[in-house]
Amino acid sequence: MQKKHKKDNKEQEYLENWKRERAAFLNYKKEEMERMEKVVKFANQELILNILYILDNIYIAEEKLPKDLEENEWVKGILNTKNQILEFLKNQGVEQIDCLKKEFDPNFHEAVEMTENNSKSGIIIKEIKKGYILNGKVIRPAKVKIAK
Amino acid sequence: MAKILGIDLGTTFSAIAIIENGEPKIIENKEGTRTTPSVVALTKNNERLVGVTAKRQQITNPQNTISSIKRLLGRRFSDKEIQNDKKLLPYQLKEASDGGVEVKMGDKWHKPAEISAMILQKLKQDAEEKIGEKITQAVITCPAYFDDSQRKATKIAGEIAGLEVKMVLNEPTAAALAYGLTKTKGQQILVYDFGGGTFDVSILDVRKDPDTVEVIGVGGDTHLGGDDFDRKVMDWIIEEFKKDQGIDLSKDQLALQRVKEAAEKAKIELSTTLETEINIPFVTSNSSGPKHLFLKLSRAQFQDLVKEYIEKSIKLVEETLKSAKLDSKDIEEIVLVGGQTRTPAIQEAVKNLFGKEANKTINPDEVVAMGAAIQAGIMGGDAKEVLLLDATPLSLGIETLGSVNTVLIPKNTIYPVNKTQIFSTAAEGQTSVEVHVLQGERPMASDNKSLGRFMLDGIPSAPRGVPQIEVSFDVDSNGILNVSAKDKATGKSQSIRIEGSIGISKDEIEKMKQEAQIHEQEDKKKKELIEAKNLADNLIYSWEKTKKDAGDKIDENLKKQVQEKIDELKKVKDKDNIEEIKSKTNDLSQIIQKAGAELYKKTSEQKPKQENKDTKDAEEGEYKKK
């Protein structure tokens, strides 16, 4: 009799474990779906970061453009490709972080230099590298120079 | 049951993990990243920042930003290390009344344990938010060389953060746990941990009686790390630019920033590619105009640059072995920890020293936290939940037409598992098939390991491709493979049981995987050739069948043309020129299509009302040889 009882317990335990495993699997599937959604939302993040790296260089080229070339049609044409990239990024849900003359906020900005300036201490006086937000998440903070 | 958090409290970065459904899983922080910088700061507005936000404002607030606190944890102010580190740290340090260390943040002096607690508190909160449960208990890791006072300080840090510290676990032991290496008693494990700023070697002895993991050797260098690699690449870039353009970039803050980023990027890229481009347009300018930086760095050059650091680490490993009175031969397992171990030259150097592959499949930045979570799982009584299931180390399949290895169970499939596929015969009237079971990654049957073979006979004679043979692979929870073949028409079946096939040695697995990689290109070509030959065979066969069934309806002239093309194809079919086979097959296929169209036209003219008889066979799969 006792042996039978023991067997029943064992069976119960196996059944219980099987049910748990089944539940765990279903939960996992649900989580996996949620994760997939997130993955889809941010799947392009790596790719976008790499494009931003190239875009940085275009910004630098524009910044260093000599005055006498500013009205050059050929140069204007090339710089128009920058606008194309910006438009593309916008369509992907990428936004630029606004920073000039704003108060430094480590949630969006990364300080790389601090110098004496007429501005109030802690105010961003120069944007060294643009920062970006993708679908509400900071994918790259703006690198900035702030006033001492 | 309340979860116990596994925490890797690192010098530069920390990570957290938890057991979920019996598996360790890294928990992302609030910012969405899998590691958190171990940095704490107090802003001018008295706001406390922890993690990446603290790091981002470091430059504006160096005196109130505390990094590398782990270097001070549990130390006495008079320790040699503290006196050395004091010069490197940007924040203020002083001797506490009990002889320990205190650091200044804002107006207050804090013990290192309090600062560590701030990091732990953030990790705890982020974890609670992520899993939606309150967390009160944790397993925290520390280096194997930590003494009692440092371990005690780690525990106190946890308690201040509101965590009951169930255990302060050695980092190397955690790494070994993550790989499941502590299950095999009586073996020695060496853990090679090359992080961002520190290098640690530990030797573990897994004992049976009592059931413990003892640290029997420690070594390393507290100021050797991946940052040295970055610096070396940066210096090289600056030097090359100077040679080329005569301009010193090290004086230009902005350029330096870009060089630093490019150096880090190059280092990471060289882990997977053999050469990388370092391209920084408009890096600087002089009176003659803008200057661009463009360099190529090969993996070999990079390895040469960082050789001294790798050699130094290997020397430290040798010293640690020596002081533990062990030889490299005495080490059964090696584990790689820390991001820098992704560098192929490091993996190579370790392999050369020990003559075997190290464990490196788990992300080296996360492996310690994973191990801590496993320990937490064991302590939380989730041990029953931690049902460890293994995966097949290599693919399992059978040999099919043209000596091709057709995989049924791919490598890394978690078992128990069952896979079934329908195959058929390759010849007319074939009454038996041979099932040849293979293990390995190579596409050609003969290049893989043969696990066994058996015959299934008594198949009723039928045209090729008609019989349906159901081949089923079953790997049970003990890794025993059962292969069976069943003729669906007669129900006749045969099977074979193969034991111990899954558990082949790690070296053998590694060897087979490497071979597959080396031969990938030629194997692909071989397989393509066989596929082309099979396609040619099938086309000839299908034509002959059509000719037999409906030959009288096809124009003789067309039949002659097809035969000519068949003869041409037959001439090249058994040679190895794949392009020729493909082109002749294509020629033949076109002319057959013409014949087919004519046949169809004639048939529909004769019997316009009759529906097409469905002659398509239901089976999928491939034709089995013999």
How does this structure look, described?
- The complex is a heterodimer of chains A (148) and B (626).
- Chain A is α+β, with helices and mostly antiparallel strands and 148 residues long.
- Chain A has one domain: Head domain of nucleotide exchange factor GrpE (Nucleotide Exchange Factor Grpe, Chain A, domain 2).
- Chain A has 3 helices and 6 strands, in the order H-H-H-E-E-E-E-E-E.
- In chain A, strand 4 and strand 5 form a beta hairpin.
- Chain A starts with a helix and ends with a strand.
- The model of chain A has no long low-confidence stretch (mean pLDDT 87).
- With 626 residues, chain B is of the alpha+beta class.
- The two termini of chain B are 58 Å apart.
- The interface between A and B is medium-sized, with 26 and 25 residues.
> How large is the share of residues in beta strands of chain A?
15-25%
Strand arrangement within the widest β-sheet of chain A reads 1-4-5
> What's the oligomerization state?
heterodimer
CATH topology of the largest domain in chain B: Nucleotidyltransferase, domain 5
Strand content of chain B: 25-35%
The CATH topology of chain A, please?
Answer: Nucleotide Exchange Factor Grpe, Chain A, domain 2
In N-to-C order, the SSE pattern of chain A is HHHEEEEEE
